[in-house]
Amino acid sequence: CTGGTVSTEHLYKILVIGDLGVGKTSIIKRYVHHNFSPNYRATIGVDFALKVLNLDQETVRLQLWDIAGQERFGNMTRVYYREAMGAFIVFDVTRPASFEAVTKWKEDLDSKVTLANGNHVATVLLANKCDQGRDVLTNNGIKMEQFCQENGFVGWFETSAKENINIDEAANCLVKHIITSENDMLQSEVHDTITPQLETDKGGTCTSCFRSQ
Ligand code: GTP
Ligand code: MG
């Protein structure tokens, strides 16, 4: 017997998807292994990484599924998406085509996986490589919020795997939304009590923040 401490453990499967070369593997590498490589090696099929978070009394294990962006692996996504609880969809701020593909990735995701209650899985949009400029975004933070609301993203962040910008913040936002959706499923009623703390000056936002204001 270890005494009276009650701790709970969660394991969440999280998908990381988006066009090839947008930085999915690099974001995971930064988040889990705290490093970055400028060399590009395309992911073949899928890779995995595990991140363990200790939050108050809870241990949260994130099983990150790093899915290849290359078109030729696209027919495997149904298998990969199964039982996911959350997702990041990533685009490259220097490549407009990778942003145009975001809605395609979101539709693919929503058509292939839902939670036990039929809801879509919590999804956060990542505008990566923000250290290289913000071509796709140029001064349209408000439009991005509108884009997220219209397309069912719970939030969005400008990130840089290279400079380690906003990656922990984006993951915290996703985890909070996953925990909320899990509680919703357990209690079969809607709670909207979370108030993630974000640094708004770094271009990040989480819809639960503006919903709760
Ligand atoms: P696939 O596996 O083919 O789908 O690509 P991916 O999305 O996993 O991209 P990957 O992480 O391999 O990164 C592609 C290239 O972009 C690499 O050369 C990375 O070093 C570079 N890169 C990734 N993230 C960043 C970033 O935040 N800033 C900069 N400057 N380069 C980045
Ligand atoms: Mg990759």
UniProtKB/TrEMBL annotation:
The keyword Ribosomal protein does not apply. One of its GO terms (molecular function) is GTPase activity. One of its GO terms (cellular component) is lysosome. PROSITE patterns: RAB, RAS. Pfam families: Ras (PF00071). It is found in: Endomembrane system; Membrane. One of its GO terms (biological process) is endosome to lysosome transport. Keywords: GTP-binding, Lipoprotein, Membrane, Nucleotide-binding, Prenylation. It comes from the Eukaryota. It is a lipid-anchor. Gene3D superfamilies: P-loop containing nucleotide triphosphate hydrolases. Belongs to the small GTPase superfamily. Rab family. The small GTPases Rab are key regulators in vesicle trafficking. This is Ras-related protein Rab.
